[in-house]
Amino acid sequence: QKEVxxxxxxxxxxxxxxxxLNCTYSDRGSQSFFWYRQYSGKSPELIMFIYSNGDKxxxxxxxxxxxxxxxxxxxxxxxxxxxxxxxxxAVNGQAGTALIFGxxxxxxxxx
Amino acid sequence: DAGITQSPRYKITETxxxxxxxxxxxxxxxxxxxxxxxxxxxxxxxxxxAAADITDKGEVPDGYVVSRSKTENFPLTLESATRSQTSxxxxxxxxxxxxxxxxxxxxxxxxxxxx
Lengths: 111, 115
Fold this sequence. Notes:
Largest sheet of chain B: 7 strands, mixed
Order of helices and strands of chain A: EEEEEEEEEEE
Distance between the termini of chain B: 36 Å
Order of helices and strands of chain B: EEEEEEEEEEE
Number of strands of chain A: 11
Distance between the termini of chain A: 40 Å
Radius of gyration of chain B: 13 Å
Shape of chain A: globular
Helix content of chain A: under 10%
Oligomer: heterodimer
Strand content of chain B: over 45%
Helix content of chain B: under 10%
Radius of gyration of chain A: 13 Å
Number of helices of chain A: 0
Strand content of chain A: over 45%
């Protein structure tokens, strides 16, 4: 059974701080890694994807991938109250197959 | 650009009734997916489809039926609804397999309550 694990949280950070969200996965053959944000009562929306080891930056968001350790993380710099949501990590082993989602980490940013 | 839509958005039904949830996408994506989301379980895949007339089971397919006669539509039917099928259902689509990112785009969801 392929698994994706996330700390459920809640992770609480003050406004302006860096929020660090972590995810581990069990399938060493996984190739694609995604971070989705889900506001309460809404559908998941894609924030970032990453394929290669290392860091990928997009605005205030940085995804980090370490395939040897089988973990992927998401850093949110200068956290804003509007970043308060549940963040879902998703992993794909092969092109065209379904994503496997973690249960999500709830982030709360206080002003 | 309508993207991906689901209907109905909210549905209340009774145990034993048949219910069909609709999903429609305007991107001509080849892949479509149905998930259910429950507290404590996260998103779980019910069925997915790689193309018209091609479907496959996901993690929790029991009690559900899908069809895909047209690329843009992927209805999900609960043949005889049970209380355990009370959930939020999300449809998603992607262009996986065409040298893209396999990114899945989600519809707004259908909140189903089975009494």
